[in-house]
Structures are given as structure tokens and as C-alpha cells.
């Protein structure tokens, strides 16, 4: 019974985040792979965890650039890394 309620909450959350544009068809693809069993066990969770770790590191690095002298080349590189992380 609790699992059904949690699944409902998760579906509501995913629908809401998708509507905000924070998730896209790539997430839906990962989710469908997990649900239909076409991926190795734990692969989807690993992909999501890697994304979160990489995005978090990149955002922290960008935050460190909040200094009087900013290296815009480094900012550009970090933004490109974040874009790659989001699109892959």
C-alpha cells in the first residue's frame, strides 16, 4: 500500500518537473528503460547520480568564480561542460 502511494507521489513530482521544463524526452527514455527492464539493473539510477554529481561539481566551480577578477574563458568552459552534461 505504501509503495503504491510513493509511486503516485513520484509520478506527480515527475509530471510537475517535466511541465516546468526541467526534464525532457531523455529522462522519459531512461524512465521507460527502467520500467520495461531493458537496461541493466541500477543503470538508470547510476546515470542520474552521475549527472547530479557532474552538474553539482560544475555549478560549484562556477560559484568559485565569484571573484573580483573573473576568468571568462574558464566560465565558458564550465558552461559548455554543464551543457554537455545536460544533453547527454
Automatic annotation (TrEMBL):
It is found in: Cytoplasm, Cytosol; Nucleus. GO terms for cellular component: cytosol; nucleus. It comes from Aegilops tauschii subsp. strangulata. Histidine-containing phosphotransfer domain (HPt) contains an active histidine that mediates the phosphotransfer. Its main location: cytoplasm. Functions as a two-component phosphorelay mediators between cytokinin sensor histidine kinases and response regulators (B-type ARRs). Plays an important role in propagating cytokinin signal transduction. GO terms for biological process: cytokinin-activated signaling pathway; phosphorelay signal transduction system. This is Histidine-containing phosphotransfer protein. GO terms for molecular function: histidine phosphotransfer kinase activity; protein histidine kinase binding. Keywords: Cytokinin signaling pathway, Two-component regulatory system.
